[in-house]
Amino acid sequence: EPHRYPSAPPTSRWRGYFGILRSALANVPTYNPWTFEERDLLVWGHSRRKKQDDGYWWDIYTDPIYEYADFSYVHFEQELGGDHLQPAKTANLFYTDEIPTYARVLRKFGNGPTVDRREVEPVRALERNIRADFGVNLAVSDGFARHLEIEFAIRRIYQSYLQHIDPNIAVVVVSYGKEPFVQTCKDEGIPVVELQHGVIHEGHLGYHFPGERTKVAFPDYLLVWGEFWKDCVEYPIPDERVLSVGYPYLEQSVEKYDDIPATDQILFV
Fold first, then answer.
1. Alpha-carbon distance 27 to 6, whole Å?
2. First and final CA of the chain: distance in angstroms?
3. Angle of helix 99-109 versus helix 141-165 axis, rounded to 10
4. DSSP 8-56
5. Residue-wise pLDDT tens digits, 12-32
6. Beta bridge partners of 95
7. How far apart are CA 45 and CA 49, in angstroms?
8. String of b and e for 18-43 (b: at least 16 CB within 10 Å)?
9. What percent of the chain is predicted at pLDDT more than 70?
């Protein structure tokens, strides 16, 4: 059976738009946040699911926790390559595909805030410096302003979802790229917890903030796989908020091989 995970974006921009539109329309009757009542947790999981022996596509970072925990939750998932892997193991799913479209409509027809010129000026200064040093006209300030205005609209949508679902905690598997969501949770007084999803190192711009560098829209807590990961970089949160909790999926996978005797061998990855 071919692997259905879309490992790369669609080759055609319009094909990608069509995939998102199709998914958004499919969301309306089922994967819709307004169908959920108040929940203990709002979890934004990972789109890169893994098919297991039961035939379902698992979010390996969150589904093993759902199996053993006793709390109510709603699970957000964004599209990847214009698609979602089905059948999904996760219950209480909401696909976020339509949020950018809603935000663009709000920006165009709503009464949302506009960008202050002072916020755009540093980007215009960057354009001038690049033009002076390299002789290249790099026009990004207008796009930057549009991006901020769309972000304002996206945050209004997140705010409405958060007020409707009213979670005690928001959990994200990947925080970078979700800064508007993280900041909206903070504005609503909802603690944000991130689950480690991959290798963290000093070259990773999403986690390493050495010296005086920091990041405002960063989760309040980071749950890592083991003690090593607590000290491998300088996180933008206090050390006591980086907690070692283990990696349930990997630990459960290792248990499958407990009865196999250890031998001297070489593993090629």
1. 19
2. 22
3. 110
4. S--SSHHHHHHHHHHHHHHHTTSS-GGG----SEEEE--S--EE-TTSP
5. 556 655 655 665 566 655 556
6. 77
7. 10
8. ebbeebbeebeeebebeebeebebbb
9. 86
222-262: per-residue pLDDT in tens? 999 999 999 999 999 999 999 999 999 999 888 888 888 98
The two three-digit tokens of residue 123, written as one number: 């980007």
| pLDDT at res. 142 | 78
Q: Which residue has the higher pLDDT, 116 or 262?
A: 262
CA distance 140 to 47: 29
H helices of the chain, in order, are 13-27, 63-68, 99-109, 117-134, 141-165, 179-187, 248-255
CB atoms within 10 A of CB 64: 19
Distances (CA, A) of 109 to 104, 105, 112, 123: 9, 6, 9, 26
Please give the model's pTM, rounded to 2 decimal places: 0.82
- Single out the residue of 7, 45, 47, 39 nearest to residue 175, CA to CA: 45
